[in-house]
Amino acid sequence: MRTLLYQVLSTSFCVIVIISNILSAKMVILPWIHLMIPAGLITYPLTFLLSDLVTELFGAKKARLMIYLALGMNLLSLGMIQVGLWLPTHSLADQTAFQAVLGLSGIRIFSSLASYAVSQVVDVQLYAAIKRWTGPKWLWLRNNGSTCASQLVDTILIDLLFLWWGLGMSAAEILPIMLFSYLYKALFSFACTPLFYLLLFLTRSQWRTAAAWLGSIFSKPLPTKGTL
Asked: What is the pLDDT confidence band of residue 114, given thresholds at 50, 70 and 90?
């Protein structure tokens, strides 16, 4: 039943990655500080929580497989959206609205996928390395240490690729965005530490019971015509 748990975590990871990428098409104005950030930044840090959880439970190899699977699903979803954009429509207004909501530029897609792939692999590798050094102890250290380091890589990569190289923004314009993005991700990681402990406890102590219950539901034979 560990396979079922891995599938649930991997599916959740893929969904969050894809939805966060789509949400990034919308820019959100933060109150008080009047800074614009992609809406996907709000949900994307959850992926680091899940990748650390999978690395802890199943090892770095399974976590990397999950990362590559999500990358493939991301490319597939973007391809399907692009096909939808290319299809003819009866209404120009509908096409414009669809393009505004789901259309992403090539440089935005490239910078997002590149920073995702590099930072997630860095997170998994650092988590596994810290675990080898510390053993089963210092769970909070490998969770927050690997996440904060990899999120720094993610923030620098995507802001340099998209904002500086793609949009031609100056360093003075990029620095506040980069600083806020990283601080938000780091604080999110620290705030999720109790949740990480809780998820780890539940998956280690309760996954057998939950998985057996789910397995019994899905393994029940469908009623035949005579038993309806």
From this structure: very high
